[in-house]
């Protein structure tokens, strides 16, 4: 019997190749002296495991079904240019990347969505494991959002598959604690979101944290006036972490448990942490 690789197999294979490559890079040439992996990596990959169980297994099936059926039931067929399949593919990928940019930006603007998204920003240091540090609710909402975009714009299945791979790979790349030569970073970020560019988004400075929302292409930040080229304190002095409560977590790191991260979206009043020990 001939074995054939499924789309899911392809996603997993590319994920593992990217993960091992970027992990090796940040281990050999780290940008910032790495903190000890425990308990950070335990938290990050536990969240990833939960995400996978709850949503990510279903994601290819749901999005693929939407992409396949959207061609007949979509409201807008502007992406479905059957006579120009390559142009259709490129436009669809651009549209998906733009949609993710705005999803990310709105998650910083909306108090409700920020309650959920801030789990990602509590990581005291940015490295490849941060790329999978998302609350399960955020992953689920993201899946629904992408499904709506795919259906409304009749995005081809091939574009969904390619973009999903690009998004995962770019998230691991731009969260990596790897050092790029300054010249290479300067030219790369003309087109792509680089680790130095995205690290500014994880700054403790709220103004910097509310910039550089892109994951794959840097175009959208430049186009919609949310691009920050350099951190105010310089890249060597850039402090990453939650823009409001990093100091609290630094003083009491034992409070930043997996259970706390899971409960975080539901444990706030007026979107602020009750900074009393018995409430954390």
Primary descriptors:
two-stranded antiparallel sheet, disordered C terminus, 280 residues, 2 strands, 1% strand, mainly alpha, 13 helices
Report a brief summary of the structure.
The protein is mainly alpha-helical and 280 residues long.
Distance between the termini: 56 Å
pLDDT < 50 stretches: 269-280
Number of helical segments? Answer: 13
Rounded average pLDDT: 84
Bin the strand percentage: under 5%
Radius of gyration, CA atoms, in whole angstroms? 19 Å
> Which structural category do the helix and sheet elements fall into?
mainly alpha
N-to-C SSE series?
HHHHHHHHHHHHHEE
> What general form does the structure show?
globular
Number of strands: 2
| Secondary structure: helix percent | 55-70%
Tell me the major beta sheet: 2 strands, antiparallel
The order of strands across the largest sheet is 1-2
Q: Could you walk me through the main structural features you see in this protein, from its secondary elements to its overall organization?
A:
Helix content is 57%, strand content 1%. The protein has 280 residues and is mostly helical. It has a domain at 35-178 and 246-272. A two-stranded antiparallel sheet has the order 1-2.
